[in-house]
Amino acid sequence: QLLEAKASLSLAQSQHALQLQQAKAQINNMVPKQQFEQLQNTLREEQCKTQQLQESLQQQAEQTCRQLVRTQEEHEHLLQAAVEQAEGLEHSLRNAEAVLAERAAQLRDAQAQLSRNKLLIEELRGENRRFATALQAAELKQKSMEKKNQLLEEQASALKQLIAKITPASLS
């Protein structure tokens, strides 16, 4: 709008200068009084128009200036808000990274503990297999001992019977 107003003002000034030159040329050519007065009236009208255009241009320039100041203030506020938001996001990101690093450390510790637990489980399984083997051997020994014990009991029973038969005969 400011540029348009300047262009209009420039055009009006050019027209005014041209009309002034024409008026001077006509005066130099001995323009009749009526035509001279008409040119003077036209000149006054053009001067009024020029004055009005200048005032309008000045008002538009002031309004544009105020609008630019408001826009600049709004942009500064928006920029400040964006900077604050970016700082907040950066802070949140740092916090999230710290939490993530802590969780990663916890996971590494848990993984290490899990590996240790797996080794311990394997060791316990090995011991369990050895105990199972030893238990089987002990059970086999126990069965063998039970058989020997039964044989001995049978032999003892047979001996008792034999002694019971021999004892009455030897007493008589």
From TrEMBL:
Its main location: cytoplasm. Residues 36-165 form a coiled coil. One of its GO terms (cellular component) is centrosome. Keywords: Coiled coil, Cytoplasm, Cytoskeleton, Phosphoprotein. The keyword Zinc-finger does not apply. GO terms for biological process: microtubule anchoring at centrosome. The keyword Transcription regulation does not apply. It is found in: Cytoplasm, Cytoskeleton, Microtubule organizing center, Centrosome. Signal peptide: none annotated. This is NINL protein. It comes from Malurus elegans (Red-winged fairywren).
